Amino acid sequence: MRVLVALGGNAMTSADGRARPEDQIAAAGVAMAAVADLLQREVEVVVTHGNGPQVGNLLVKNEIAAAVVPPVPLDWCGAQTQATLGFVLMDALEAELARRSVDRRTATVVTRTLVASDDAGFTRPTKPIGRYLPADEAALLVEHGETWEDRGEKGWRRVVASPEPLRIVDAPAVQALVGAGFVVIANGGGGIPVVADEDGTLRGVEAVIDKDLGAALLARSVDADVLVIGTDVPHAVLHYGTPEARDVGVVTAAEMRAYAAEGHFASGSMGPKVDAACRFVEAGGARAVITDLAHLSDAVTGTSGTVVVPN
Ligand code: ADP
Ligand code: MG
């Protein structure tokens, strides 16, 4: 069995959101212990991960250091976080595997994901990223071509395109490494967004791809049987945060789509996870599970979490 495990950006920081290197290393250890449990059961695993907090930190460095060191574009930030988190995850996973006497090698693939240059997101950016700034500081960045939105009391926040992932450009490299027995970490942050010029040349673009939608596409591209979306809640919940709250257990993609249409899942958080789970099974995947790290290894056999199955 082959499983694609998608870890939330928050699975890579401490519970209170701190992202010092030691916080990220500790969080990676917890997440990789769950992945190692899976590997111990002879399951093939490909890991992908979010990078929101890490990219947020790089953007702050860009802003503060702009007068001294040239700021780098958002696609570079994506590439940097794929490499750094890949390295942290490989160290953590290999330590957990050694502890279990499981003999497997790990590899990280810096992964590009193709998006359309005419994606609606490029004309109407919607994805908020980075920190809040006061109006005058945001105005300066708007002059440099960035889009910032007034978010009321908290201040202004940058918004960027979140284009639809069309193809995982480096999926063949992931496939080859999986075939050779490696546990592969790939497509972090949903992939580095690239567009194709008329002659086919790829070029990075200032955008962020939704990690969960990227994960669904990667899962199909590497022929995964199961997509597990690991986050900080054990289930997707109907009437979330109300007295009528009810966990979603095993559902068909059509039932889940109907719940989504009723507005049960917040657009910036649970919404894309539900969409990704549905897309994966609608495209031929056997099962998609949304759950927390504690239930990750159980999720693969279908005993816990929110399990989306074909109609
Ligand atoms: P990650 O960082 O792991 O990708 P997010 O923070 O984006 O995860 O999404 C998980 C969060 O979604 C949960 O912590 C929860 O607060 C929120 N959420 C919103 N709507 C729901 C819902 N209907 N059911 C469960 N969680 C929900
Ligand atoms: Mg979160």
From TrEMBL:
Q: Which Pfam families match?
A: AA_kinase (PF00696)
Family annotation (InterPro entries): AceGlu_kinase-like_sf, Asp/Glu/Uridylate_kinase, Carb_kinase
Keyword line: Kinase, Transferase
Is Kinase among the key words of this record? Answer: yes
Domain (Aspartate/glutamate/uridylate kinase): give its ranges.
1-292
Question: Which Gene Ontology terms cover its molecular function?
Answer: carbamate kinase activity
**Family note:** Belongs to the carbamate kinase family.
Which NCBIfam families is this protein grouped with?
PRK12352.1 (NF009007)
Query: Which PANTHER family does the protein's record reference?
Result: CARBAMATE KINASE, CARBAMATE KINASE-RELATED
What protein is this chain from? Carbamate kinase
Organism expressing this protein natively: Nocardioides hankookensis
